[in-house]
Amino acid sequence: MIKKAMILAAGLGTRLGDVTLNKPKALVEIGGEPMLFRLLKKMKKAGIEQVVINVHHHARQIMEEVRKQGDFGMEITFSDESDQLLDTGGALVKAMDFFTGDQPILIHNADILTNLNLNDLLQFHVHQQAEATLYISNRASSRALLFDDDKLLTGWANLKTNNFKWVNREKLNYKPLAFNGVWITMPHFVKEIPFTGKFSIIDAWLSMASRHKIIGFENNTVQWFDLGTPEKIAFAEEFLKMNPL
What we know:
By secondary structure, the protein is of the alpha/beta class. It has a single domain, classed as Spore Coat Polysaccharide Biosynthesis Protein SpsA, Chain A (Alpha-Beta Complex). The chain has seven helices and 14 strands. It has helices at residues 35-45, 59-68, 87-94, 118-128, 187-191, 201-208, 230-242, and strands spanning 4-8, 29-30, 33-34, 50-55, 75-80, 105-109, 112-114, 132-137, 143-147, 153-158, 163-166, 175-185, 214-218, 224-226. Helix 3 (87-94) packs across helix 6 (201-208). The mean pLDDT is 96.
């Protein structure tokens, strides 16, 4: 069972327009409830005990609202990026003190809604003896991670511009799959990230994949929603009316 998790909730939410002028994206409601609250409740139900949340846009508002909810019965701390938004990789390095011990830690974007079974992801991670396990699927996306036949990370591509980045060297055989904003990692993996400051976690993965086992967990059967735009939130809400997650 996963005991610790980090939620990436520092995004500006610019694609949500005026909705996020006076509210952080993580507190935008989906089906009458802030997306962050939905995720924290799911984590609590899954047995997670400790959570760190990175914050930037309207950071104080997120902290206050979570505290009002009694931290959802968990031990919740915050990694404050008010001075500088550090992106998905820099966020982990700033929260380095959270990555202790030798047990897997969940990393989850706040603006992702999915009924993925976290224990399935964990069991795959443990079975594969991976250092990072990425939840991926075969869905339409202009940007994709590239995997070999064993689902080991070999590269990244912008399929619209035909721009590729490789682990070590160009590969002739690969499968493009979309990353879904959820992954599991080992504490030591985060401590060995070779970058500082603001950077994407994808750049770190590509840099580290030649000497660390980074593997994809492909699941095309569960429900998954990106809550990044008003249209996508509306689409997810229509689904939730008939299919509560």
